C-alpha cells in the first residue's frame, strides 16, 4: 500500500483485473439472490452506476465495498468499473465494509445479530459504543447479543419463520442440547411464546452444575433433593425448580467472576459475543515470545471469553483470545518471516569468518544481522491507560510550556485565528495550517517578533473586519470599549453626520437630533425661521441643508449612540 498512500480520495475508473479482494475478505456472509439478480440485470443494461470503494495496494487496488458490483462486472465480462479510490488502513477498510452491510435494505434479524457480533470484536465488547455506532438503544443491542446465545438450529428457524424472536430469547440462556430438544417440541406442538415462557419457568437446573454457593439451597423447597426419601420417593439428583432464582444467582456469580478476570485481562466478553472467525488463541508459540510477552499481554485486544449459558458449559473461560484478526495474522506472518531470518543467521554464523568483515578482535560483526531480524511489537494499549498517560503528560507539558512567553503568545494567536473566517496571515509559515493544533505548532516555529506582529494583525482583523454568525465581534468590541478611560470623548469625536447616517433617521428624529446638537439654534442665529423651513422641506432637502450648513459636530453624538458605552 505504501506506493499509493499519497493518493487522495477521488473518483475514476479502473480495469476490473486490477482490483483484488482484501486480505481479510468480505464481511458480508450472505446475500439476497433475488436482489442480486436484479442488480445483475441492471448492470447488464446500464453498466455500474454507483462506484465501488477501493484502496491502493502497492501497484494494484483492493475492493473495500461493492463486492457484488465487482463480481457481477466480472461475470458479465466488463473491462472497467467506476471506483472511488480512498487510502485506508485495515481497520478503516473493515469499518467501511461494516457500514455498507449495515445499510442494506434486506438486513435480517440474524444479519443484525452478526453485525453486533462483528462490532463487539471491533469495539472490544463496548455495548454503548456499538449502540452509538448503529444509532440503536442499549436494549436493542442487548437483545441481539442475547439471541446470539441460540444454537444454529434455533437461529435458522427464526430466519425461516418457524419460530419468533420471542421464542429465541426464551431459549437463549439454556444449553445447546436443551435448546435443540425444546425447539422440536415448539414446532411440532406449535407452542406460543406465552406457553414457552410458562414451561421455561417450570424448568429445572441441576444444582451440581451451579457455579454459585449452593449452601442455602439445601433447605430450599424448590430443591428436589429436599423431598428425597419422603413418601417413598427414591433419592434423586438435586435440581432447582426456581429457574428465576437460579439465573439471578448465576448472574451475580458471573459478574463477580468477570470482575476477577478483568484484573488480568481488562476485557471480559461472552462466548457468543464474538464469532469464532473473529477470535484466535494467542500465545508465544503462535506469535513469538517477544511479541506475546511485551505486546499481546498488554494489548487491549487480548480478552477472555466466558460462557454464560445454563448447562455444563456455564462459567467456562477461554483466556488469551485475540479479537483483532488483522493484527493477529500480521504477527503470525511476521513470526514466519523471523523464522526464515533465524535460519539464515544460523547458516551465516556457521560459515568461516570473513576477515574483511571482522572487527579488531577477529570476531564477525553481527550488528547488521541483529537489526535485520528486529521487528516492532504490535500492541493496542487500553484506553484507560492512554487517558491516564495523557493526563500526566498534559500536566507535565503545562508546567514546561506555560512559563514560556512564546507558547503563551502561540496559544493566543491560535485562539484568535480560530475565530477568523477570512483572515490572511502575514507570515507564510502561519498561512498554511488550518487546524488549531497545527496553528499553535506553526506559531512556535516563527520568531517571537514575527508572532507579535501577527497577533496584532489578526486582532486588527477581528476588531474591524470579522463577520461571524456565531460570534459577534461587533458586540464584543463595543462591550469592552468601557475599559478605555477616554472612550466616551473619542467615541463622540468619531461620530460625524453623513448622508448615509442621516438617511436612517425620520424627519422628526432628524429635528430632535439637530435640536440636541444645537444645530437649530445655529441656523436660527443666521436667519430666523430657516430651521423650521428646512425641516418642512422634505427629508432629502432637509438632510442636504444640514450637511451644507457649517456647524461643528465634533462635540456631539446621539444619545442612542453613546448609550452603547457601558
Summarize the structure.
By secondary structure, this protein is of the alpha/beta class. The protein contains 28 helices and 11 strands.
Describe this structure in words.
With 566 residues, the protein is of the alpha/beta class. 52% of the residues lie in helices and 8% in strands. The protein is built from 28 helices and 11 strands. It has helices at 33-46, 67-75, 90-102, 109-122, 127-134, 138-147, 152-160, 165-171, 176-189, 193-201, 243-265, 284-287, 289-294, 325-350, 367-373, 383-401, 405-418, 428-431, 436-445, 448-464, 473-480, 487-494, 499-502, 507-517, 519-526, 530-535, 539-548, 559-562; strands spanning 10-15, 19-21, 52-57, 60-65, 80-85, 205-206, 239-240, 268-270, 280-281, 302-306, 317-322. It has a 5-stranded mixed β-sheet with strand order 1-5-3-4-2. A 4-stranded mixed β-sheet has the order 8-10-11-9. A two-stranded antiparallel sheet has the order 6-7. Strand 3 and strand 4 form a beta hairpin. The chain is elongated and about 120 Å long.
Amino acid at each position: 500500500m505504501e506506493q499509493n498512500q499519497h493518493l487522495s480520495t477521488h473518483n475514476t475508473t479502473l480495469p476490473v483485473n486490477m482490483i483484488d479482494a482484501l486480505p481479510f475478505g468480505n464481511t458480508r456472509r450472505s446475500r439476497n439472490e433475488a436482489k442480486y439478480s436484479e442488480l445483475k440485470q441492471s448492470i447488464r443494461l446500464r453498466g455500474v452506476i454507483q462506484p465501488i470503494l477501493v484502496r491502493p495496494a502497492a501497484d494494484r487496488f483492493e475492493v473495500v465495498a461493492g463486492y457484488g458490483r465487482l463480481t457481477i462486472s466480472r461475470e458479465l465480462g466488463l473491462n472497467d468499473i467506476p471506483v472511488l479510490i480512498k487510502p485506508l488502513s485495515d481497520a478503516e477498510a473493515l469499518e467501511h465494509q461494516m457500514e455498507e452491510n449495515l445499510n442494506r435494505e434486506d438486513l435480517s434479524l440474524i444479519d443484525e445479530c452478526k453485525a453486533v457480533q462483528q462490532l463487539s470484536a471491533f469495539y472490544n465488547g463496548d455495548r454503548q459504543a456499538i449502540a452509538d455506532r448503529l444509532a440503536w438503544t442499549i436494549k436493542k443491542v442487548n437483545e441481539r447479543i442475547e439471541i446470539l446465545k441460540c444454537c444454529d438450529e434455533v437461529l435458522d428457524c427464526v430466519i425461516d419463520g418457524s419460530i419468533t424472536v420471542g421464542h429465541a430469547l426464551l431459549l437463549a440462556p439454556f444449553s445447546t442440547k436443551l435448546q435443540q430438544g425444546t425447539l422440536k417440541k415448539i414446532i411440532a406442538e406449535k407452542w406460543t411464546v406465552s406457553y414457552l415462557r410458562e414451561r421455561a419457568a417450570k424448568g429445572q437446573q441441576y444444582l451440581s452444575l451451579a457455579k454459585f454457593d449452593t449452601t442455602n439451597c439445601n433447605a430450599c423447597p424448590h430443591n428436589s433433593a429436599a423431598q428425597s426419601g419422603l413418601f417413598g420417593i427414591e433419592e434423586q439428583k438435586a435440581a432447582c425448580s426456581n429457574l428465576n432464582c437460579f439465573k439471578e444467582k448465576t448472574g451475580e456469580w458471573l459478574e463477580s467472576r468477570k470482575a476477577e478476570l478483568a484484573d488480568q485481562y481488562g476485557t471480559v466478553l461472552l462466548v457468543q459475543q464474538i464469532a469464532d472467525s473473529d477470535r484466535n488463541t494467542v500465545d508465544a508459540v503462535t506469535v513469538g515470545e517477544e511479541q506475546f510477552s511485551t505486546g499481546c499481554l498488554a494489548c487491549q485486544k487480548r480478552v477472555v471469553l466466558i460462557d454464560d449459558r445454563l448447562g455444563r458449559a456455564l462459567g467456562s473461560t477461554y483466556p488469551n483470545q485475540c479479537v483483532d484478526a488483522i493484527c493477529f495474522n500480521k504477527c503470525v506472518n511476521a513470526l514466519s518471516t523471523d523464522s526464515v531470518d533465524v535460519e539464515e543467521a544460523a547458516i551465516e554464523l556457521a560459515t568461516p569468518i570473513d576477515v574483511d568483515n571482522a572487527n579488531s578482535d577477529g570476531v564477525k560483526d553481527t550488528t547488521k544481522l541483529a537489526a535485520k531480524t528486529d521487528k516492532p511489537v504490535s500492541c493496542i494499549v487500553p484506553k484507560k491507560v492512554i487517558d491516564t498517560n495523557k493526563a500526566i503528560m498534559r500536566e507535565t507539558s503545562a508546567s514546561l510550556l506555560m512559563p514560556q512567553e512564546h507558547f503563551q503568545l502561540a496559544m493566543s494567536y491560535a485562539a484568535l485565528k480560530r475565530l477568523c473566517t477570512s483572515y490572511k496571515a502575514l507570515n507564510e509559515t502561519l498561512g498554511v495550517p488550518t487546524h488549531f493544533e497545527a496553528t499553535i505548532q506553526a506559531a512556535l516555529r516563527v520568531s517571537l517578533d514575527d508572532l507579535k506582529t501577527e497577533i496584532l494583525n489578526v486582532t486588527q482583523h477581528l476588531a474591524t473586519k470579522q463577520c461571524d454568525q456565531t460570534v459577534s465581534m461587533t458586540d464584543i468590541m463595543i462591550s469592552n470599549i468601557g475599559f478605555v478611560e477616554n472612550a466616551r470623548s473619542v467615541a463622540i469625536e468619531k461620530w460625524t453626520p453623513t448622508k448615509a447616517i442621516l438617511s436612517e433617521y425620520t424627519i422628526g428624529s432628524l429635528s430632535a437630533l439637530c435640536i440636541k446638537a444645537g444645530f437649530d439654534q445655529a441656523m436660527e442665529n443666521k436667519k430666523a425661521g430657516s430651521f423650521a423651513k428646512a425641516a418642512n422641506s422634505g427629508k432629502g432637502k432637509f438632510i442636504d441643508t444640514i450637511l451644507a450648513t457649517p456647524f461643528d459636530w465634533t462635540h456631539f453624538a446621539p444619545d442612542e449612540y453613546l448609550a452603547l458605552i457601558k
